[in-house]
Amino acid sequence: MEKGKKNADAKVGNEASSPRAGALQSALSVELHTHYAIRLWEGRKQSDSGEHEKKRPEIISMPKAIQRAGVASRDSASDNPYADMVLVKLETTLHMASSKISTIVNELDVILTAVPKGITLSDIASAHPLNISVYSRSPLGYRCVWLLVGYDQLAMKAFQAFHYGLISRAQRDQYLNRGGHAVRQVYGAIQPYYTVAVNRSDIINLTACGKEALARLGEPDPDIFSGKKRSSFSSPLREHSVRQSEKR
């Protein structure tokens, strides 16, 4: 009897002392070196136009883009097909924009190496870069940040190439505009998103929430609704939702 009690106590003791991992933590910060990238980080409010001036549209800030990507990811996890649609659009736009900026950076790298022998150009950086801490609830939010850092690199290389006479002012501005347009396209993909409390079941069963969402936002993309097309950063579609979608 005593022996059995001793073994039981030992088992409890081993369970109590077994090591457990705590919550995973990681901090991230980025450095921006150019005013062009910093302005895109900060965004732009809609400007008031004069009688003969064109009104400039609002450009959301990077923190707002990150926040909306996080909201869309949260809604996607709640089986919202409209959130899935915007995440697919955001990921697709990010891929195209990243490819565009990478291509331009590679072009500028080739230009910067086309100098006579005996000349070495050091890497360019700001004497006082802006250091920003970043947190996103969505991997796509971080992808937006990577894109802006890439544009910052593009801008630095464009100014360096112009400074040393390797490209003209017009070429420099063209590179800057092409890269900036790519970032703004990504902002445009997430800017219109807002939460609508609806899920696939609501739409299939035409509940009050489902009818309202259909009236305001239209029919969801069939491939996205069925789960055939989905962001690679979204959780798998629930089996119950897949079965219901197949019956629709």
From TrEMBL:
It holds the Pfam family AcaB. Residues 1-20, 219-248 are annotated as: Disordered. Coiled coil: none annotated. Residues 237-248 have a biased composition (Basic and acidic residues). InterPro entries: AcaB. This is PFL_4669 family integrating conjugative element protein. NCBIfam families: ICE_PFL4669.
